[in-house]
Amino acid sequence: xxxxxPLPLSGYVVDVHYVSGVPTFVLGDGAIALGTAGRVVKPxxxxxxxxxxxxxxxxxxxxxxxxxxxxxxxxGTSTLVAERGRKWIDVVAAGPGGAVAFASGRTVVxxxxxxxxxxxxxxxxxxxxxxxxxxxRLAIAGYNGVGLWFPxxxxxxxxxxxxxxxxxxxLSPDGANVVxxxxxxxxxxWRLRDGQHMRMSGYPAxxxxxxxxxxxxxxxxxxxxxxxxxxxxxxxxxxxxRPLELGGRQELVTRVAxxxxxxxxxxxxxxxMILLSRFSDREEVLLARPNGSPVSAMAWSGNGLELAFGCxxxxxxxxxxxx
Length: 323
Fold this sequence. Notes:
- The chain is mostly beta strands.
- The protein is built from no helices and 30 strands.
- A hairpin with a 5-residue loop joins strand 20 and strand 21.
- The mean pLDDT is 96.
């Protein structure tokens, strides 16, 4: 079993990122814990509701219930990106060229790399945001589908429709496929070149974590007693294909994190256990023993030799795969 360095934190771990190589834990109580030395900064007056790593990996973007969007670097410096009064910022995304997107209710805002602000009103609340890998284009998940928006242009929003509530959205690394997690405990996807729908169902719980494998061959997901990995390397994507299933246990998988270079994935469970599983033969390695608290965040270091994790209780740690 690899060596685990425990890092007891002050509260619910919303997310974890490697910011300029430094493991950075985003906490629900409004704090950000930097590295292993116990350094903590508090960029928000209230709680942090969402976070995203900047495209260059040099800062973390956070949205809070104080109505602020903040950018924090590895040295603990926090700067204001935007402020929306008393409106909660419950979803954020980071894009190319330093762009930042966030949403409050039906209003979606993009602050581009020059600092210019663009706003869009959606028919219903925006529940998920993600940028395309190239160009300033944003996918917005909400009720009855996804809107694709080019901020700062007169181009109409392209609507990808599917009935139901879409609570999160992700894009394949090549930008060819849009996939959402739904309130109805399923995934839905669209192939952009021809609008082909992709329906992925059968989950016993909502999918709250999605992670693309290296080169985008698989989309790994939480929401079951296994991590379900949908194959996207076939002509019709996952349609008509059996998904790969990893790490079967009685406990639910709550978080997934695909390795940056190899076809392996870290799987976090609702009892705090973390397993490492290889796609080719499903061989498993125990990374962390159960601690009684659901794993709520995981991230790989850039070289793939360290895994940072956090749990709902505030339990957290660094797993060194070289030891």
